[in-house]
Amino acid sequence: MPNAVRMHDEQAAFLSLEALVWRDGPVCPHCGESSRLGRLSGLSTPIGMWKCYACRKPFTVRHGTIFQNSHVPMHVWLQALYLLTATGERISSQRLGQILGVSVRTAWHLKTKIAASVEAAKDPQGPWHGESAVNRVLREPFPDSPAPLQPGQAVCKARYERFLAATAGVAHHLDDAVFVAALHKLLRSSGTGSDPGDDVLEQQLELSLFDEPSGRGGGADDEGLR
Ligand SMILES: [Zn+2]
After folding, report:
1. 6, 67, 138, 144: which could join 16 in a potential S-S bond, CB 3.0 to 4.6 Å?
2. Is residue 221 part of a domain?
3. How remote is the CA of residue 197 from the centroid of ligand 1, in Å?
4. Distance 85 CA to ligand 1 centre (A)
5. Interhelix angle for 74-86 vs 131-139, to 10°?
């Protein structure tokens, strides 16, 4: 499950979120328009940007969600959610920041917002993941990325490599249903998500469209998206 394009590709992360939030198609958060909308795709246009041709305002699927007003990329939010879910929120802000390549302050912010939102989504049956797997995420060192830290794709790639190294061996413990349920909790906490209920499996299938075809890591095809 960490081997999903949405975990390291910003465009795929946005498409995943749009599939969850806009079940019946995109809606302008400013005026409610649902038909005269267009996806903006200019070279200088931020990923995920739409324009409403009724009220002329731009918007993204982040609007009205916990992700609104956050400068943190969507795929980083998803990685953070995965790491927090996989460890029962026991990962420290320092460790989280180290893996995600963000400041401790930003990591703390992500952790606090996510923890508050998914609190109620915890499995009442208790932890479903093995202690050793969690310890790996929490403590085991991961190799330094050979990729140079420069803006853009290299940063994404290096972050994803750290993420995969940290979560190696945990993948089979945390399936899509658990992750999607947690993501639903985040969205519901901001009043925009729909009730997961029986829809989780269905959406899990939809979201699997963004899974890597095989193996780990991003191929050349994925990188072409950015
Ligand atoms: Zn509008």
Report:
1. 6
2. no
3. 30
4. 35
5. 130
Kindly give the distance from the C-alpha atom of residue 44 to the centroid of ligand 1, in angstroms, as a whole number: 22
Domain span at residue 107 reads 71-210
Whether residue 78 contacts residue 7, with contact meaning beta carbons closer than 8 Å, is answered with: yes
36 Cα–ligand 1 center, Å: 8
| Residues of the chain below pLDDT 70 | 1-3, 120-151, 169-176, 189-226
What's the 61 CA to ligand 1 centre distance in angstroms? 13
The predicted pLDDT at position 52 comes to 97
CB atoms within 10 A of CB 24: 7
CA 33 to centroid of ligand 1, rounded, Å: 5
| Residue 161 within any structural domain of the chain | yes
Q: How many domains are contained in the chain?
A: 1
What are the tens digits of pLDDT across the range 62-113? Answer: 998 889 889 999 999 999 999 998 888 889 999 999 999 999 999 999 999 9
